Amino acid sequence: MKITHKNLKQGEVKVLVETPEDLWYLSQIIDSGDSIKGKTPRKIKPTEEAEATKRMVFIALTAEKVEYTANTLRVGGKITEGPEDVPNGSYHTFSVEPGSIISIQKEHWYGYQLDRLEEATETKLAKIMICVFDREEAYFAIMKRTGAEVLMQLKGEVEKKRISTKIASNFYEQIIKQLEQYDERYKLDYIILASPAFWKEELYKVLKNDALKKKIIQATCSSVDEQAISEVLKREEVATALKQERTSKEMILVEKVLSEIAKKGAVVYGIKATEETAIAGAVEILLVTDTLIHKLREENKFATVDSIMRTVDKQKGKVAIISGEHSGGKKLDGIGGIAALLRYKLSYE
């Protein structure tokens, strides 16, 4: 995402959407009541008798509904400004996609919203491939801002009756060939090579492509399946490669919440308990899943969670919006979709 204009005194930021991942960020930034402006296609009838024709027009509207899916963002609301033949007060929906330019105007920009905007406009998102494998199969996944997307599963041929620590050489070659193809396609920055036992070291020894070798970070996983990809993201070995990746940071935060819950530490979860601690000024880090946000918006019940987020922000706490697409987000959704790491442990006795 690229910011083309920014005037926080007037509450306005104008952005150019560059990637599908930018749409996720905008879905977390745009609130009901915001003024959204930009050029957009609309069917217009010059007269009652004439057929409607679609043309690009400049429209401003007050956002009422924000709908996000993997590749689309739709923002609908009542028109406040437009051409003469588009009446104010009528409804319109912006379909935002890569290449779109829109202005967002708010009465107040909260810190967590500006943080999201800054994160989305970082110059570069590291291109990371994760390959988890053993002597029988391999999974390949590419990192996106919304999590890891599995691209392929590769099956090897081994003699299961024979107890051997040797992996079939042709399966090594298949994995290396696939990695080379993905490297050429995605121009990878890092390749995380993970396996149980010593398979990763064995493959690395026979890898002759020096350019590919420089990109590899070795890690250990306990199994070879899609769940292993989530496991690898939390390993210390990959922290360097993933330090700019939102997914890794989010999963670490969720694991910290679960750890604190297990030892009855300084943590709360659920809307009611989190609201109480936010009002008390005890929240250091608030975690909310985008799944919960979208659900409550759809049900017109977002006001309480929105108030919690704003309260924490005003009290200089951190607000972390967690993607529900990765395993960390799913775990957080499993305990209500909202939790808070506290500055100190509260006693309700």
Quick take:
The chain has 349 residues and is an alpha+beta fold.
List the helices and strands and how they pair.
Elements: E1 2-7, E2 12-16, H1 20-29, E3 35-44, E4 53-69, E5 72-81, E6 91-96, E7 101-105, H2 111-120, E8 128-133, E9 137-144, E10 147-155, H3 169-186, E11 190-195, H4 199-206, H5 210-213, E12 216-220, H6 226-233, H7 239-242, H8 246-262, E13 267-269, H9 271-279, E14 283-289, H10 290-298, H11 303-314, E15 318-322, H12 327-334, E16 338-342
Parallel strand pairs: 8-11, 11-12, 14-15
Antiparallel strand pairs: 1-2, 2-7, 3-4, 3-7, 4-5, 5-6, 8-9, 9-10, 13-16, 14-16
Helix pairs in contact: 1-2, 8-12, 9-11
Query: Uncertain regions: pLDDT < 50 for 5+ in a row?
Result: 160-165
Structural class: alpha+beta
Task: Give me the oligomer status.
Answer: single chain
Measured as a percent range, the helix fraction is 25-40%
Strand order of the largest sheet: 1-2-7-3-4-5-6
The span between the termini is 48 Å
Overall geometry: globular
Give the CATH architecture of the largest domain.
Roll
Backbone CA Rg: 24 Å
> Which superfamily, in CATH terms, is the homologous superfamily of the largest domain?
Pelota, domain A
Quick check: average pLDDT? 88
**Biggest pleated-sheet summary:** 7 strands, antiparallel
- Beta-strand percent range: 25-35%
